[in-house]
Write the structure tokens for this entry.
Amino acid sequence: MQPRNMSMSGVVDLAAVKAAGEAKAKAEQARAESARQGGGGAVSPASLVIDTDEAGFERDVLQRSTEVPVVIDFWAEWCEPCKQLSPLLDRLAHEYNGRFVLAKIDVDANQMLMQQFGVQGIPAVFAVVAGQALPLFQGAAPEAQIRQTLDQLVQVAEERFGLTGLTVDADGAPPEAAAPVAGPHDGLLGAAMDALDAGDFGGAVQAYRNVLADDPGNTEARLGLAQAELLGRVAGMDAQVVRKAAADGPADVPAQIAAADLDLVGGHVEDAFGRLVETVRRTAGDDRDAARVRLLELFEVVGPDDPRVTAARQALARVLF
């Protein structure tokens, strides 16, 4: 089970589904066996989102994937973007009403699974369909992009594997959550997320700045602003042109900065950080400061508690001092 490289494009790579005919046959056989044993009935809404680990992976993910696509959310308590993405995935799992099951895996407690899937950064989202692993996306992507990915996943599962999902008990109550306490900036933060989902990066930037003007320490707004600014910068880029300019001009600071933005959006976090640390090392004056400032901005996107940020901060300190 070796997933392919991750992407933040939000598009399921249909070519990654290998041996579909064989896997479909196995899935049909497993469903028939489950039916003979009295399985296949309606499930509780609470079973649509589960926490699993290495001990329960075969039961919770591999076996369940013969009945329904299982989306895997690799997360950690220290990961700030995970705290944005995980609640969204939870909500969508219930909204999709049995068309997929969400399995949450804490990478700190399940290093072996993290290595088996080749997870290089979190949050990282995979799917397992009839025992076949598919990379979906990495990072806290916009909701519209995530929905597009899930829609394609459901389509692949049905057309190629015959998985039509689970029947959810309409009378079963979903797990109750404490009613959120409205904050003074919830309206602006919600408007910023809506703007991100619509691709209005300028509107999202302004909404986050409005929050920070009143509450400079607002963590959600600071992270959202960094992400919105990054997405706005790369939206109009021609990736081939940018990467060629960076390859042809290692001393071209704007080219290196633009390439680092693309690296990060593509999920190549260490490459982005390493590129800018090296640019800081070989430059001076305003050029050095521009590269340093952009690196600090990218640290905000990833989150201050990410170990890759910690390592890059140490590397930056070494070249500066």
User: Anything to note?
Assistant: Residues 1-24 have pLDDT under 50 and may be disordered. The beta strands are 49-51, 70-75, 101-106, 124-129, 132-138.
